[in-house]
């Protein structure tokens, strides 16, 4: 165990996040998401965190993960099929988490556009979340000392 690090940030998750470079995407997805298929097709790293909600995992990741400030939006969620104006509970939670971290609200993408973006992720973190639309992708930023 490490001090001040969420226990949800497993060694494999921390290693996967640390290997990512500026502009790389990480997808944090629910239990119903086709993560195995996408990781096999794209060669992404799959990290499974069953038993945890996407919101809890997102909160842990944002505690150590710099978001991109050069290209916006740096985060995307999946739109509700057939009604893009509906905000599902998980997405509402994501917005609150972003606000707590002082970040801009995530954008939304149509379902298949979201799948396409998630398929380009370097790391896919599959949670045990059974709620619909509990999916988000994040673009990694930089840490600077200037």
Write the layout of secondary structure elements.
Layout: H1 11-19, E1 25-29, H2 35-42, E2 45-49, H3 54-62, E3 75-78, H4 89-100, E4 107-109, H5 111-118, E5 123-127, E6 136-139
Parallel strand pairs: 1-5, 2-5, 3-4
Antiparallel strand pairs: 1-6, 3-6
Helix pairs in contact: 3-4
Describe it for me?
There is one protein chain. With 146 residues, the protein is α/β, with parallel strands linked by helices. It has a domain at 36-125: RbsD-like fold (3-Layer(aba) Sandwich), CATH 3.40.1650. It has 5 helices and 6 strands; from the N terminus they run αβαβαβαβαββ. It has helices at 11-19, 35-42, 54-62, 89-100, 111-118; strands at residues 25-29, 45-49, 75-78, 107-109, 123-127, 136-139. It has a 6-stranded mixed β-sheet with strand order 2-5-1-6-3-4, with helices on both faces. α3 (54-62) packs parallel to α4. The chain is globular and about 45 Å long. The model has no long low-confidence stretch (mean pLDDT 94).
């Amino acid at each position: 165990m490490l001090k001040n690090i969420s226990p949800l940030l497993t060694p494999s998750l921390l290693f996967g996040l640390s290997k990512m470079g500026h502009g790389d995407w990480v997808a944090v997805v629910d239990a119903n998401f086709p993560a195995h298929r996408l990781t096999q097709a794209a060669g992404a790293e799959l990290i499974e965190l069953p038993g945890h909600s996407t919101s809890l995992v997102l909160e842990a990741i944002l505690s150590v993960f710099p978001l991109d400030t050069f290209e916006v939006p740096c985060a995307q969620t999946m739109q509700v099929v057939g009604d893009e104006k509906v905000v599902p509970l998980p997405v509402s939670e994501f917005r609150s988490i972003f606000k707590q971290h002082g970040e801009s609200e995530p954008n939304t993408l149509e379902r298949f556009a979201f799948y396409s973006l998630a398929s380009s992720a370097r790391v896919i973190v599959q949670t045990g979340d059974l709620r619909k639309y509990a999916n988000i992708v994040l673009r990694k930023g930089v840490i600077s000392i200037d």
